[in-house]
């Protein structure tokens, strides 16, 4: 209704589970979906593939979040940025991760982590953008090997119809060793 009244041009939504994103895309004529699209989840679990397919089928653009996700922190691992997932820090790896995400059909843009140093590296990656090569895809596949998923527990909980219990009430994901179990 707001679109028809000229109050907004585009309508979209954000989701962190495949089920939520796919059901929303199939149920309403959204213009865009904001969803986690990154090499670790994509290569290790196929996470994001169905959302990309349905978004393309419905003509919705994909706004990729967490494109530089490098997986779960290993138990006891020290992180430069204290957060619930590891993010790439090396500029060349960041460039390749962005190339991968932005080369996927339907992805129209992406969002970097909020830290200023990583935002600057994302901007550098944007200036260096070119379509990803097969050699770079192979490198990302190797980098993804053995990395833990930051969305698996949430996806599994939704698939089983269970409430995802997080010890962090304002935080959608658990951190630490429990995620690896």
| Order of helical and strand elements | EHEHHEEEHEHHH
Number of strands: 6
Structure classification: alpha/beta
Number of helices, where a helix is a run of at least 4 consecutive DSSP H or I residues: 7
Mean pLDDT: 90
Low-confidence stretches: 167-181
Q: Strands of the largest sheet, in order across it?
A: 1-2-3-6
Distance between the termini: 46 Å
Question: How much helical structure, as a percent, in the residues?
Answer: 25-40%
The main sheet comes to:
4 strands, parallel
**Number of domain units:** 1
Spatial shape: globular
Q: Tell me what portion of residues adopts beta-strand conformation.
A: 5-15%
- How large is the radius of gyration? 17 Å
Explain what the structure shows.
The protein is an alpha/beta fold. The chain has one domain. Helices cover 39% and strands 13% of the residues. The chain contains seven helices and six strands. It has helices at residues 18-27, 39-45, 49-58, 91-103, 116-127, 134-144, 152-159; strands spanning 12-14, 32-36, 61-65, 69-71, 86-87, 107-111. The strands form two sheets. A four-stranded parallel beta sheet has the order 1-2-3-6, with helices on one face. Strands 4-5 form a two-stranded antiparallel ribbon. Strand 1 (12-14), helix 1 (18-27) and strand 2 form a beta-alpha-beta unit. It starts with 11 loop residues before the first strand and ends in a 22-residue tail after the last helix. The model is unreliable at 167-181 (pLDDT under 50).
């Amino acid at each position: 209704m707001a679109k028809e009244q000229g109050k907004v041009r585009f309508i979209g939504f954000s989701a962190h589970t495949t089920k939520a994103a796919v059901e929303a895309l199939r149920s309403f004529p959204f213009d865009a979906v904001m969803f986690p699209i990154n090499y670790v989840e994509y290569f290790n679990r196929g996470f994001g593939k169905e959302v990309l397919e349905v978004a393309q089928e419905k003509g919705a653009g994909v706004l990729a979040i967490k494109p530089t996700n490098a997986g779960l922190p290993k138990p006891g691992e020290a992180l430069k940025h204290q957060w619930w997932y590891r993010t790439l820090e090396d500029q060349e790896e960041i460039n390749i991760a962005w190339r991968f995400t932005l080369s996927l059909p339907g992805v129209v843009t992406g969002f970097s982590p909020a830290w200023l140093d990583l935002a600057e590296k994302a901007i550098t990656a944007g200036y260096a953008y070119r379509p990803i090569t097969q050699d770079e895809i192979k490198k990302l596949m190797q980098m993804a090997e053995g990395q833990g998923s930051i969305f698996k527990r949430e996806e599994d909980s939704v698939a089983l119809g269970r409430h995802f219990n997080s010890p962090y009430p304002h935080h959608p994901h658990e951190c630490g060793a429990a995620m690896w179990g």
